[in-house]
Amino acid sequence: MSVNRSVDHCKTPSDITYQVLSWVMVGEFTLGLPLNLSVLYIFIFRYKFWKNKAIFLFNIVVADFLLVGCLPFKIHHYQHNLRRSEDTVLCKIMLFMLFLNRGASIAFLITMSLDRYFNVVHLGRRNFVKVFKKSPQISVIIWILLLPLTIPTMVTTFECCNSHGRVKETYLHDVTDTFREIVFFSQIIIPYIILVYCTVRIVNRLRKKTVGEKTKLRRAVCLVTSVVVVFSFCFLPCTIARAALLFVRLKNWQDAENIAVQWYDALMVLSYSDCLLDPLIYCFSNSGFKDVYISTFSGGRSADNLNSSDDI
Predict the structure, then answer these.
(1) What residue intervals traverse the membrane (predicted)?
(2) Which of the four, 58, 112, 173, 281, has the lowest number of CB atoms within 10 Å?
(3) Is the dihedral of CA 159, 4, 184, 238 positive or negative?
(4) pTM of the shown model
(5) Residue 8: inside a domain, yes or no?
């Protein structure tokens, strides 16, 4: 398929739509920056995450900061009627950061959910995830393993950071673009299936437990349910929109693509709200963190005297 030179795919198909989306991101950035700064402060200076087995939670905070740091650039581009930066290097760096944020957030959220699953459904058996939580090196390894899945965004030059289905591709170009799309879809669909499975098993386990054990188990249900809700709200809609966009692009339906692009970009902006929703997961997953956070900013009991715990 040859490139349609009459269409500038880097320009926004509707200026009004992208002006609105830019202001939505302004709101996400305005709320997300102080929220995540406060969470980071608590984790480092009050909660001391390395002592309370909350290393995975801390890594989610770091991943959220990668996203928050990208939002001002996205806002600038949308307000100047550009879907992506016209600078090729900046364009690729932005996609790299967004892919890395998404992959890291999902990886650590899945790890937390699996930990709750083994603690509840397979209580008494060796929990390999719990062993990982005690080793900071495991978090470093997870970040390193994410790099091969993120590098394809920077391997080759592609029009507006996405040429799949738009240009006549070389073998390397085709493999790179295809691999990038596989990563995009698999990192959402596969974890979502795992989350749903863990949620169903934990809920079934809860029904069989005695009354005295149900308090902690309900926390586990709240955690995995909240993660599923975040996935369903933030990631699934843009994944479906991505599939629709690729379909109309491969069919070379330009008018339909203009509409699909707007829906996809709008739902991607919606997905950025995970930096606002993730702190809710921190509270569900660890009551110790919640107590420290509330006591610090409400002037209650001394956070240093609170009993931090790693809940089921």
Answers:
(1) 20-44, 56-75, 95-118, 138-158, 178-200, 221-248
(2) 173
(3) positive
(4) 0.83
(5) no
